[in-house]
Amino acid sequence: MFQTFRLSMAWLHTWFGLVLGFVLMVVFFFGALSVFDREIDRWAVPESRFQPQPMPSFDAILKPAFERMQPAKESVALLEGKVDGAIPERFDTVRRWGAYTTHRDPVVAVFAGYSVPNAKDPEETVWAIHALDPRDGKVLPDGQLRIGSQFFYPLHYSLNLNWKNLGTWIVGFAALMMLAALVSGVVMHRKVFREFFTFRRDKSVQRSALDLHNLTGVVALPFHFFFAFTGLVIFAGIYFPVAHTQLHDLHELSEKIEARETGLPHDRAGVAAPMASVDAMVAEARRRWAAKGMAGDVGYLGIEHVGDANAYVSVYRAGTDRVALTGEGIHFKASSGELLREDPPRTAVDSVNEFLTGLHLQHFRHWLLRWLYVLGGLLGCVCIATGFIFFVEKRKKQHAKSGGQGSRIVDALAVTTVTGMLIATTAMLVANRLLPEALADKGEWEKAVFWSAWGLALLHAFVRNAAVAQGRLSPAWREQCVLAAMGAVAAVVANALTTGDHLLRTLSIGYWPVAGVDLSLLALAAITLHAARRLGQRMPSAAPTALNGTQASHG
Q: For 260-318, what is each residue's pLDDT tens digit?
């Protein structure tokens, strides 16, 4: 089919990169935003604009909050068809309580899982999930959306397509093909070292785009490879659910054997029992960590089989001082506070898995590395965007002569994916600040604004790209850059007007979560306005001349 192996790699790199680049652009951009998802949460929910807090007292704060919790009506609605008879109005049998926080969280994420009476599946669980103010136990309003952790973060790995884990499968396939594209890119570019120092900004759009594509691909190659690989590792249980499918019965037996060996009950006893002071258990866990010279911050606190004689409390150390997320779990009998188990050191396989997972999710305390993650993600965006531009620029004159529409379609989709995504993001942030705080389902309205803005950007990109069919640059690129800049500035202004937390105030008191989001939005506005100005300078010019035949290997 191809004369050389290198040409076959060029074909694979071009077409896999094009088709899956639209997905990977979303993954990289929202993955970069997810590095500071908790900070974006504080910008989006002004009630959470206070300093991060340690895990609060269970006895005084968490327990009363858990006892007041019930599943949201949306979660209960998902039980339709899963229950024999009517769905109960209240759920009283609690399977587990859990609370999670990090060194960047002002609020504590609390969740409760309830048994479902008369469920067709005995393991069916309905969940209640809230954000809790650790200072007084007040639950943040349900209608408010924590945009960073509840929307941008899952968008980067699931596209927020949750039916049958469809989005996670799409992203996983894109990540797998990305590894192939990275390998094929290395094969294509034999002069990698030279391309590291090559960027001709004043040449044609085609040449500049190719130089920048090569440069960003080479600079961030280890980052791109590592994060594609670790992302696949994290979701291996979804892609290969061996334990819960082919080995289902063996898996259940293994859990029961493990429960006997560890002393942590697998099932409820069916006998009610009171709960001893969990705060005393946490204090004992911290004492044991301190005896080993470990930091004593609690990252996760959970109670299994709540209210039952077999209930037990698990206290896990936060992952601020190491790469692994949580660890050094210590487990106590809930009714008496008796120590049941102290987790032994992890096996080599578990340690590698925890390290890879923790390095991808970076919950450890290292701000410089966190910003390097953002830089790596944005370099991935630039690499993909310039790949789109090069693809279109190389073919549009040929397509214009033959009457083909391929370049127009790819260009419109590229505009939508690159600049349209920015418009949708800034529009969502503006809506977050302008919609009334008391609006029911405020978060759903914000999501609707996001998807509507992105849909309008798609429509605009197709309406305005007739110039591509004539071998010229689409004005949609410039126009959407201007719109993205306007949206970014509008979000900063809206935040200042609705909360009073303008930049002068947040910078003067050193409240960097909100100040950082505002500064990032202003940086986005400056970059997109600069891009719009550069594009405007190129608009009147004739279509760029084609590169010489040495570029034929790019597809």
A: 667 788 888 989 999 999 999 999 999 999 998 887 889 999 999 999 999 999 999 98
Which of 162, 155, 145 lies closest to 40, judged by CA?
145
Structure tokens at 331: 């487990």
Domain residues for 323?
Answer: 51-141+274-334
Whole-angstrom Cα distance, residue 27 to residue 32? 8
Cβ-Cβ contacts under 8 Å for 345 (sequence gap 6 or more): none
H helix runs in 118-247, sequence order: 153-158, 166-188, 192-196, 205-219, 221-234, 236-239
**Shared-domain flag, residues 383 and 314:** no
Please state, as a whole number, how many other Cβ atoms lie within 10 Å of the Cβ of residue 81.
7
What is the spatial distance between Cα 118 and Cα 115, in angstroms, rounded to a whole number? 9
User: Is there a domain that residue 125 lies in?
Assistant: yes
- pLDDT for 467 beyond 50: yes
Coil/strand/helix, residue 199? coil
Q: Model pTM?
A: 0.85
Instruction: Specify if 266 maps to a domain.
Output: no
- Specify burial of residue 93 (Cβ count, 10 A radius: 0-12, 13-18, 19+): middle
Cα gap 291→27, rounded to integer Å: 42
From the number of C-beta atoms within 10 Å of its C-beta (0-12, 13-18, 19+), residue 477 rates as buried
Q: Are 380 and 28 in contact (CB under 8 A)?
A: yes
- Claim to verify: residue 416 and residue 497 sit in the same structural domain: yes
Look at the chain and report how many structural domains it folds into.
2
Question: Do residues 433 and 501 make contact, with C-beta atoms less than 8 angstroms apart?
Answer: no
Is residue 496, in this structure, part of any structural domain at all? yes
Query: Out of 117-121, 434-438, 518-522, 535-539, which region has the weakest mean confidence (pLDDT)?
Result: 535-539
Q: Do 510 and 449 lie in a common domain?
A: yes
Does residue 70 sit in the same domain as residue 206? no
Span of 24-33, 135-144, 280-289 with lowest mean pLDDT: 135-144
- Same domain flag for 159 and 103: no
159 and 107 co-located in one domain: no
CA dist list (Å): 368 to 149, 216, 329, 508 = 21, 20, 29, 22
Residue (of 546, 425, 535, 438) closest to 491 by Cα position: 425
- Distance separating alpha carbons of residues 273 and 448, to the nearest angstrom: 46
Instruction: Please tell me the total number of residues recorded for the chain in this structure.
Output: 555
Output the pLDDT for position 141. 77
What is the per-residue pLDDT for 241? 75
Q: Round to whole Å and give the CA distance between 43 and 374.
A: 18
Residues 132 and 164 in one domain: no
